[in-house]
Amino acid sequence: MVAHEMNESVSHQRSVYYRPDDTARERMKRSFEVLSAEIDAQAPIYGVSRGFGPLAEFDADPDAGRHGLGLIDHLSAGQGEDLDIETTRLMLELRLSGMTRGYSGIDPERWEEIAEVLRAGFLPVVPATGSVSASGDLIPLAHAASAMSGNGLAWDLDGGTPVRVPADRRLRQLGLEPLTWRSRDGLAFVNGTSASLAAALGNQARLREQCWIAATLTGVIADLLRVNAEAYHDEVGVARGGSPGHAVAARWIRAQIAQPREARSARRLQEPYSLRCAPQIIGTVLDFHDAFAALLARERAGCSDNPVISEHGIYHAGNFYAITAGLVSDQHATLVHQLAFLAERQLAVVLHPASNGGLPPLLAGRPGATSGLAGVQIAATALLAEIRQLSAPATTTPVPTNLDNQDVVPMALMGALRAARQVRHADLVLGSLALGVAQLAHAGGQRPVAGRPWFAELLDATPLLVADRPLAAEVRALSAILRREARGRFRDGDHALDDRAVGSEP
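The chain above was modelled as a monomer; its predicted structure follows.
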């Protein structure tokens, strides 16, 4: 993952969780009071009076500051590329918000000290590799905590382009003092599922955008090739059982068809499945997406600490086990593949003379003398192949660790970051299809109709291919145009779009 790449669909805003209300502060206070009372009673408490992980049966260091520092230091062992900036931001927001639920045993004033560092704009550099997501995402969160103490690296975002700088220098630039971590607030910070959940939420947002892009390109192809649009009729979805996702996908497809054709006026009775079954494919992805939205929202609203410290007592348990984010991420991998597979097969339709309306093979300007989109198709095939190779479920590949204390592990962050790589590859497959669709329009002499201004931008970004030219940058440019269009059309929380139809539908 490129460190400076932004997860643009998870736009950063100052979260309400950075300013907890009086109710949240009271919850936190009661939890802290319960913890304080149990400490005074010399109760056995994981990570406070006892050690960490499999060493929980041993006494903790009596110096809470030294014990907390040891926690952060020994977990600062991550490797590999950095988490992208937006995932890091969201990870920290989720961690702070979880600590306000009243189950973390953290003093509200101490919470404010931690939050103030982030409010000031401090953002740690966090390595992406090292978490098994069983006791939360210990390794990445420990690196974040360490940077907030002045160790490691932080992002300097002042100049527009993110730059890695020493964390202590960045704290000084922002007028901040390094944090010190006592045992309980250190454990509350690192002992959550926030990294895997943040990455899964980013993929969730991008997946919805890709559904719209896939449906929209399907509609444009259907329009350009004069296909039988009966496959996109509402009655088909009703007959199937009333899938909400099917209805939305079909509506998005129809919105791009200027002149819907039925069997008598279409070029053929039935199209290949990549066109005819697109509502079923995209719609089912949307149905799964919506089911996952509820699961992820519940995780986001919860607290993933251990132990759970409520006003009713202390409970040593396993809320830090990131199985929800792990299983959702494994399904994200499957769903992204469905969209990429559909797009790659539609590109084949666009490039083959038997299905592209008799246009030249590979849409070459002079077949033989030029090669058209041959390279683009080969690259799209390679991207799809890698998406498939990455589709093995991470949750089925656990390795016990931590002296078998963590004898089952969900590998949730690993799965979410794998899915993020698949999403980026799928963006490029969709960009390759967009290039093919634009060249199809050029070759057929068809210009965009009213209601489809973004398509004119696509055509301008990839002029008619007369002679061979490098096309990698054009694929990326078209992908970026479509992603921007998708982000601009979505509204938070549902499928609501500004569906100004190209054709006859309102």
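The two ends are 41 Å apart (CA to CA).
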